[in-house]
Amino acid sequence: MIDGKKIVVVMPAYNAEKTLEQTFKEIPFHIVDEVILVDDHSRDNTADKARQVGVHKVIRHDNNKGYGGNQKTCYKAALEAGADVVVMLHPDYQYTPLLLEAMVYPIARGLFDVMLGSRILGKGALKGGMPMYKYIANRFLTLFQNIMMGQKLAEYHTGYRAFSKHVLETLPLENNSDDFVFDNEMLGQITYAGMQIGEVTCPTKYFEEASSINFSRSTKYGFGVLGVSIAYRLQIWGLGSYKIFKGIKR
């Protein structure tokens, strides 16, 4: 705990058997109270491996619900566990658990509602092996979203995120996609609600076992991101009404 606040790490997992143990062992358990892994119907032994290494709670989907669907289960389970701060940590070891303290403390101390581990701040992305086409797309999409959403974030596309309980209880996450664009829809909701976002520099690693969507899925995600940004702006201007913003007070 930090200042009496319960810290829960959630791991949305798919075929993470090879990298799970290394990720889990680096989690700073002097501040983390509980780890919850949701196995999205992996083809390997991710769930068994999670129990073996000591993950506190393991949930396995009976069918594949997608990356966004996995996160919905993760956050629901974290809130049911009494979490005050929730960190999403991918078990593929692409993001280092050693940065957890920097992610959690600003939320636990009330400075921010959300923290993002940015691969773009500094030189972590290309140094860590991010493909050039993904880097260029990341920069273009982030610039477009900053303009459309009135933010100054270094990156909207990191999978390393931490949230206060208030964020997860307030946002209508069930209205979001079950696919990869869930992440971006969530940031659109957070911005629309006026919640405060902080960022820290995060090194990242690209290697064979690390989860990474292919070019076609990346293209689909990119168009989804453009759609979220346009929907946000139209919603702000009162020219549209979109499900992902339904019920959010500004």
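The above is record 1. Record 2 follows with the same two-line structure.
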Amino acid sequence: MNATASFFGDMLQTITERGRRFLALGPRGANASDGDDMEALCETLLSSRGEASGMALARDILERWQRCDDAAKRQFMRMLLLRFGPQTELVEKAIDAYRSAPNPKALHELHVAAEPRRQELIRRLNLAPNGTAMLVGMREALLTLKRAEPDLEPLDSDFAHLFGSWFNRGFLMLKPINWSTPADILEKIIRYEAVHHIGGWEELRRRLAPEDRRCFAFFHPQLIDDPLVFVEVALTRDMPARISDLLREDRATVPPAEATTAVFYSISNCQAGLRGISFGNFLIKQVVEDLRRELPGLDSFVTLSPVPGFAEWLDEERRAENPSVLAPTGQNKLTLLDEADWAERAEAVAEVQPVMTAAAAWYFLKARSESGRVIDPVARFHLGNGARLERINFLGDTAPGAMRQAHGLMVNYLYKLDDIETNHEAFVGRGEVVAAPSIRRLMPAERGTAVQAQTEKGPARGKAAKKTRADEEASS
């Protein structure tokens, strides 16, 4: 595959250089300064009919873009938004034609007229050698700009529309990542890991080399040495509650033939410019199928996932005059969270645990954003894929970042193959969170009732809650 990609890359490079000579462009567009009118070059590219000249122009525009400073990149984006949208006159004519004769041909012509010209421009820029990677980088810059200038959304929608086609499942290649994978890709795994930091090569070896560890990544033919998303998997005998059980140096290795559970403990998206283009759902389902073929003894597929939105939501509940879930007793217990060392003190843990697990059940099952969505992004991902919320794990991850984001909370999502489609339809169609009975039993019947009852029972209730701890995993 790499040899084929290299062959086509060399061929495209040759065609592009011929086009450069035809257009009298220097090796990096040296016949014009970086301050030249990019709009004119883009118009020329759109009107170009020659393959070699078009590829040369595309490369020249993208190379100029990469040399631009932030202000020039912003100017370029606004130029695409304002100057390369749909041609209003053509749209109006197509609308009139459709009203006069509403037939499929007229509707197709209206569709063509309504497409922004920048979509075709982006398609042509993609013809340049390494064009796909540079366009992904361009969208990454656009997403940063869009935070301050939301009116750039139509331009971002065009990028997302095209990327959704270029990076669909049919083009993606699933590859195992192991200790024999080329070093340049392994370096990227270290760099892109977004859930549980990898401190260096030795730590990476502990995640890839043992026989009870697996890692898989999706690649694209145009980004052959750069993963799009990867998942780290632990083979275990049961469902884990703490990330330390999977990552500590002195853990006992499980022979794969004895493993019954595959644990997806880290899913990391690698390309910021592909944000919103979903790969993880395909990745998990493909990996499940591959692992089932390799290890027929596996009968449980779960995650150990982070809860990145929980701490912020809980803090808002604590500040609210009329919180959704916290009774006054629970409010008082949670003041312990303001003490830096609370998780290291047994008495504080016993006080906080029943309040927090009950609040977490409410957070997943009842709390919603202003738009009516489940608040937690990781929950939306796994529940949308058809998983079941299986267990809430108190202090599942005590790393500083996890304590800030979720007060150490993690959860397990269960992928039960026979129920995936039903769970998916329940979540997507009715907004229903499919959860294990043990989680539903934590739910307050009315505002604050169950939480207060649990806190009044004290440490005994804490022990019961400990039996149903659920930790969550991070994905993107």
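The chain has three domains: 12-166, 170-303, 306-467.
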